[in-house]
Amino acid sequence: MFSKKTKIITFYIFLSIITVTISFTVALMYFNSDSSSKENIANTKISKSVSSNVNDITIRSSTKIQLKILYTKSGNTSNSFLDNTSLIGKTLAQVKEIYSVQGYKIEKFTLAEVILTKSEEKYSQDKYVSGKYVLGIKDGFIAIFRADSVGKLYIEDAAHDTTEIKTTNLKQADIDMLYRGDLQFNSRVEAEGSLEDYR
Description:
Layout: H1 4-52, E1 64-71, E2 76-82, H2 92-100, E3 105-109, E4 113-120, E5 133-138, E6 141-147, E7 153-154, H3 158-161, E8 162-166, H4 172-180, E9 184-185, H5 188-194
Parallel strand pairs: 1-4
Antiparallel strand pairs: 1-2, 3-4, 5-6, 5-9, 6-7, 6-8
């Protein structure tokens, strides 16, 4: 059907097509990896220059500013973003000066993003109404806290308000609820009455 000469020519054409295809694929992979490594090197150089010149960075209109507050009593974190218009053009030192008064520390300061963090000895933000009594945990024992005028919890009388009820004897769900400060009462009498549930 096919002559020997036709078969040999077809074989060489097929072999040439495969060789060209493999060569093209290898070359394409080499050039793509080479260009991506060049981009990585360029990005590394940019990030090094930005981090080494962080004092020269100023906030732009595109810079996102995030406030993070860690509530140490519950371990919860509150995240919010600020309108940055009043901070455009400010440097690291200027932002530090403005926000350190409020207890914030700078976690990150780049052209794209500024993250300011602080810790508060509360269970959560705006969770407690002034004058309310809250069951919580102090040093491994159930305690009765009171919310001050700004919603921060404190113990009025450590000897009286820290109970002898150990949290190690409680169910994990109860411990979690106490850490979150979910149980709030209008009076000390109500708070003390609820302690019977844990005895």
